[in-house]
Amino acid sequence: MDGLQILNANKIRPSGLRIKILEYILSHKTHPTIDEIYAELLKDNPTLSKTTVYNTTRILAENHLIKTITIDGQQVRYDGNVAFHGHFRCKNCGRIYDFNVNHVPEEAELKDFLIENMDVYYVGSCKNCNENL
């Protein structure tokens, strides 16, 4: 599905910039920041404002089309993969890696809890940085 189809299927009014922002996040597995999204899309969209990027990512996240990641507590990043998975942030190079999470708590373990968000984060040194130490 392309960005237009995804927005229409989720009853979000499509605009050219909303489509481009969504498609950028879905196609870049780097977990981009607002600044990265803005800088890249500005090249071909000179009327783009950072406010549009902020507002669009908020709408997309509220509709569960993208995931907001705050793994380091300072920088917000966006993930187009909304399936349950974990993130590893390398404290040296700053790159964020996805990984599969094998254990999801049994329903009985969290009986009577209302879960709004589930995140698994690890922080350390990635393989590439370890090899270069």
Task: Give a concise summary.
By secondary structure, this protein is of the alpha+beta class. 35% of the residues lie in helices and 14% in strands.
What does this structure look like?
Helix content is 35%, strand content 14%. It is an alpha+beta fold and 133 residues long. The chain folds into 2 domains: 3-78, Winged helix-like DNA-binding domain superfamily/Winged helix DNA-binding domain (Arc Repressor Mutant, subunit A), CATH 1.10.10; 83-131, Dna Ligase, domain 1, CATH 3.30.1490.190. The strands form 2 sheets. The chain has a 3-stranded mixed beta sheet, with no helix packed on it. Helix 2 (16-27) packs across helix 4 (50-62) and helix 3 packs across helix 4 (50-62). The longest helix is centred in the middle third of the chain and has 13 residues, at 50-62. The protein is flat and about 45 Å long.
User: Span between N and C termini?
Assistant: 42 Å
Overall pLDDT, averaged?
91
Q: By helix and strand content, what is the structural category?
A: alpha+beta
- The total tally of domains equals 2
Q: What are the segments in which pLDDT stays under 50 over at least 5 consecutive residues? A: none
Number of helices: 5
Order of neighbouring strands in the sheet with most strands: 4-3-5
Supply the CATH architecture of the largest domain: Orthogonal Bundle
Q: Give the quaternary arrangement of the chains.
A: single chain
- Classified by CATH, the class of the largest domain is Mainly Alpha
Biggest beta sheet summary: 3 strands, mixed
How many strands?
5
